[in-house]
Description:
The chain is an alpha+beta fold and about 350 residues long. Helix content is about 65%, strand content about 15%. The chain has helices spanning about 1-30, 40-65, 70-95, 100-110, 125-190, 195-215, 220-235, 265-275, 315-330; strands spanning about 220, 245-250, 260, 280-290, 295-300, 335-340, 345-350.
Amino acid sequence: MFLRKKYIIIFAHIILWAILGFIFIAHVPLTIGLNFPKEYWIKQSVMFSLLIGLYYLNGGVLVPRLLYRQKPVKFILLHLAIIALLCSGGFIYDGWAHIQEGIVRSINEKFVGKLQITLTGIKLDTTLLLTSCLLVGLSTSISITRLWQKDLLRSQQLVQKQLDSELSFLKAQIHPHFFFNTLNNIYALTFIDVESSRASLHKLSRMMRYLLYETQNDRTSLQREVDFVKDYIQLMQLRVNGHTTVQFEEPRAISEKVIAPMILLPFVENAFKHGVHAVKESRISVKVRQEGDLLTLEVENTLFARRGQSIDDGGIGLSNTKRRLDLIYAEHYQLHCGPEQDKYCVRLELEL
């Protein structure tokens, strides 16, 4: 693909130079039908070849090394010297080969009896001068644009690498945080119900496989992420007391969408951390809905006055989740959270 693009660029350059060469060298004599002297063709061909060299010299060397490195004075003076040298060489060759006299003679012969031209004074080759300035300006503009694009691409790649490193670090923090809390729950359960603790360990091992194999990538399937949340809720239900009611509602049919792994769990985990009381009636509700590309997570838990609650109380996992949302989804998510009467509500909307 790269070689194909390279050949296309080379072919385009050849076509453009051929068109410009025809205009610079042969357009006037062939259009009018004049028989210019051979010295004219030699001069125009040589000068056009030098102009092509100036174009690539300017774009490949002078612009990157002088103008782009904040040396505009040297850049301008050098180009003035080059253009002056070209024009002087053309002027000297004109005088030596008597090109202008030959052109005037050819015109007079063509339009005999209709138009007669006489040559007076020193004639500067304005075509050569204007073409030189045009090619230098065009080459400078193209070269500057390419250099800016390279710098922009390099900057974007650097930012992306920094984001990837930060995301990897955040994910690495979330996993130990999750395991630490879950193992504490299972440890507490071993004192109450050994069979339930064994079932919890089995479920935890299944969740660990998800973390080991699914979260290594930037995205996982939405179905697996929802199943992971469901396993966590069932695991926590083995621990909560009879005063706590847990409700989980999942989409009836989940379409094939992808989502950042471990992006939903911290909000559910936060509800179990703050919404369970030892003696008072507690209620936790988790609802996951999907409508096309929009995924909605609603989490509600009982709010106890003496505890209070904040979205920032979730520790490492929750704060990192908010940071991951900012990095991965940017302006494609909305997060609303806060107390509403006697419950704490979290509503997350993601554009998948």
